[in-house]
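FAQ

Q: What does a record look like?
A: Structure on top, sequence underneath. For example:
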């Protein structure tokens, strides 16, 4: 009798109504990614004569949309606020360098230092993602958000380094 009850409990626990398992596809997620794709296509086509601009704008669009979604889903999580702080810090440092440092070698060295600072930032965001996945599971939204902020940091500082000085 006890074995029958134990087997029936195990069958109920592994059923599709298990509260521990979350469904892989939900209407909300499907609507969100439809919105993302619907916005990505016109964003990519905005500059047909210069494709890198379209790629850059798609990256910015995906980062902003996934960042807003991360803030809505996880408003108190450091995973939502650390990339905002990193982007704000980069903006503030570039403005400070452009106004306070003289044109030439000191400013170039500072921008190269900012570029190199992007490498530990990327490693830090990757570690945050891995730790978050161990706790709560994988979130494509958070992953795209972190990757977009890191890629933005590296792209902006790299573009400033490669820009000709006039």
């Amino acid at each position: 009798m006890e074995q029958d009850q134990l087997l029936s409990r195990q069958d109920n626990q592994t059923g599709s109504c298990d509260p521990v398992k979350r469904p892989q596809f939900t209407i909300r997620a499907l609507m969100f990614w439809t919105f993302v794709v619907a916005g990505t296509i016109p964003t990519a086509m905005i500059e047909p004569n210069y494709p890198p601009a379209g790629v850059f704008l798609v990256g910015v669009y995906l980062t902003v949309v996934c960042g807003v979604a991360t803030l809505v889903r996880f408003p108190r999580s450091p995973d939502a606020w650390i990339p905002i702080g990193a982007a704000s810090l980069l903006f503030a440092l570039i403005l400070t360098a452009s106004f306070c440092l003289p044109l030439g070698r000191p400013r170039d060295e500072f921008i190269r230092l900012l570029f190199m600072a992007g490498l530990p930032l990327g490693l830090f965001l990757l570690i945050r993602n891995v730790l978050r996945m161990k706790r709560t599971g994988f979130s494509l939204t958070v992953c795209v958000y972190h990757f977009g902020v890191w890629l933005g940091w590296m792209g902006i500082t790299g573009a400033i380094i490669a820009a000709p000085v006039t």
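Q: Is there anything notable about this one?
A: The chain has a mean pLDDT of 80.
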